[in-house]
């Protein structure tokens, strides 16, 4: 299959092309199988089309550190390095797209392009899921499910600053910037601030060490759950 994802030079690291293509092929098949009416060229498809062209751009491994993801934050990057041994599931949904990780290889796919494509793909899956729930159970059922998902985020928001996540064992995300972002999220849930999916996906945190830092993996997982909530309501 022809791919449109740019590749990094052979002296730089990018996503393993074979693994990316494999995941995107599975995503396309799953999307079409669960939504038989979906065809390339359908109106909302920067979707199946993206899934194809997604066979062309996938995320790069960088963390939420300010210096990662080509100087922007991407949880998928640090996660790709931490989780590259994980096998790719044949059942694809929005959560598995958010958590997918690829090995880093020289001359692979450019991370930023793949990350952007996966973000669009995740959004498409959430939109389809929402449409299915609305059709089968109505808007109240969707809102109830979204509320339950959001409610799981509240406990950390209520914790004191510098104690919202586990400390990093070595290097992690500086606590103060993470706390400021969580304060903003808390204000969002109180109807006093705005936080978008884009904001959550692109947030960056400077690095710090040990007691001055939160564990990256725990913060990344929390923000991915936040993104799921934001996608559900946007």
Q: Features of this protein?
A:
234 residues, mainly alpha, three-stranded antiparallel β-sheet, two-stranded antiparallel ribbon, 11 helices, 5 strands, 54% helix, flat
Structural class: mainly alpha
Strand percentage, roughly?
5-15%
Number of helices: 11
Low-confidence stretches: 39-90
Rough outline: flat
Largest beta sheet: strand ordering? 4-3-5
- Report the average pLDDT across residues: 78
Structure write-up:
With 234 residues, this protein is mainly alpha-helical. 54% of the residues lie in helices and 6% in strands. The protein has eleven helices and five strands; from the N terminus they run E-H-H-H-H-H-E-H-H-H-E-H-H-E-E-H. The chain has a three-stranded antiparallel beta sheet. Strands 1-2 form a two-stranded antiparallel ribbon. About 22% of the residues have low confidence.
């Amino acid at each position: 299959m022809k791919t449109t994802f740019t590749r990094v030079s052979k002296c730089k690291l990018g996503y393993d092309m074979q693994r990316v293509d494999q995941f995107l092929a599975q995503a396309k098949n799953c999307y079409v199988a669960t939504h038989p009416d979906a065809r390339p060229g359908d109106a909302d498809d920067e979707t199946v089309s993206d899934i194809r062209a997604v066979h062309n751009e996938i995320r790069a491994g960088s963390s939420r550190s300010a210096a990662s993801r080509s100087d922007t934050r991407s949880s998928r990057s640090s996660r790709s390095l931490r989780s590259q041994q994980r096998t790719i599931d044949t059942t694809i949904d929005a959560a598995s797209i958010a958590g997918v990780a690829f090995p880093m290889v020289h001359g692979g796919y450019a991370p930023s392009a793949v990350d952007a494509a996966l973000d669009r793909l995740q959004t498409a899956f959430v939109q389809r899921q929402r449409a299915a729930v609305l059709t089968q159970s109505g808007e109240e059922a969707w809102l109830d499910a979204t509320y339950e998902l959001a409610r799981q985020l509240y406990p950390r928001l209520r914790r004191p600053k510098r104690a919202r996540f586990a400390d990093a064992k070595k290097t992690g995300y500086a606590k103060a910037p993470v706390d400021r972002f969580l304060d903003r999220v808390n204000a969002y849930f109180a109807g006093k601030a705005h936080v978008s999916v884009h904001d959550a996906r692109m947030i960056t945190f400077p690095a710090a060490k040990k007691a001055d830092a939160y564990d990256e993996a725990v913060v990344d997982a929390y923000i991915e759950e936040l993104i799921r909530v934001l996608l559900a309501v946007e």
